[in-house]
């Protein structure tokens, strides 16, 4: 089986700062690192490192060939990543001493994906494959609708949260993942609770508290592993990629979530994004107090 990811590809410029800057504040950074990132790229790398076959549908600019090469190096099928005239997307990320962050995104080439490109990629998909989208590219609704028509399992990470974008894809979803804040934003936008949306699988990530799984009227909580976090950037994407890989491999959802929790716990102990996502061997061998 294959996970088809209509996803963003960014250069993540990560600044280590003593605290998150306030409005009007000029702040000196202690360090700067550049990593492969974007919610889409992070999820593709996580899925591949969790043992799934992942095909990424996206776009880069002429300045982003290194990002495509790195995705290939990490085991992602990059045949459907187009090179366009727009600059590659990027993110400016500030990370404080407690591992909390704030992020500024520039969409760039991530919004230059064409319908023809999407259709050509999914023409190679098989019934039962997964397709996942986020809110950092264009064509989410088209991808979700096409995925439903083709018999794919349609998955969606509702971030960054945009009420209109989320409402538009809801009718086509089999799987929805979002964080606590986004879940409340969705309730306000739709007037419905998660159990009323008619989506079979819904996961709410709760940060250091773990995750909550909603399935056919039942709710299950999964506690996070206690670790010393140094950088929370990409932890949610790592969790999502591992859950999707578990689904693709036929794991029970509870088992997929437990494994994803382990991956996310390892991820927050590392500085960086896609380049430092743990592989399956590391996740299985990790020991937590």
TrEMBL record:
Its EC number is 2.7.1.15. The active site is at 237 (proton acceptor). Its cofactor is Mg(2+). K(+) binds at residues 231, 233, 267, 270, 272. Requires a divalent cation, most likely magnesium in vivo, as an electrophilic catalyst to aid phosphoryl group transfer. It is the chelate of the metal and the nucleotide that is the actual substrate. It catalyses: D-ribose + ATP = D-ribose 5-phosphate + ADP + H(+). It is found in: Cytoplasm. GO terms for cellular component: cytoplasm. Residues 6-278 form the Carbohydrate kinase PfkB domain. The keyword Kinase applies. Pathway: Carbohydrate metabolism; D-ribose degradation; D-ribose 5-phosphate from beta-D-ribopyranose: step 2/2. ATP binds at residues 179, 205-210, 236-237, 261. Substrate binds at residues 10-12, 38-42, 136, 237. GO terms for molecular function: ATP binding; metal ion binding; ribokinase activity. One of its GO terms (biological process) is D-ribose catabolic process. Coiled coil: none annotated. Activated by a monovalent cation that binds near, but not in, the active site. The most likely occupant of the site in vivo is potassium. Ion binding induces a conformational change that may alter substrate affinity. Keywords: ATP-binding, Carbohydrate metabolism, Cytoplasm, Kinase, Magnesium, Metal-binding, Nucleotide-binding, Potassium, Transferase. Its main location: cytoplasm. Catalyzes the phosphorylation of ribose at O-5 in a reaction requiring ATP and magnesium. The resulting D-ribose-5-phosphate can then be used either for sythesis of nucleotides, histidine, and tryptophan, or as a component of the pentose phosphate pathway. Belongs to the carbohydrate kinase PfkB family. Ribokinase subfamily. Homodimer. This is Ribokinase. It comes from Ruegeria faecimaris. The gene is rbsK.
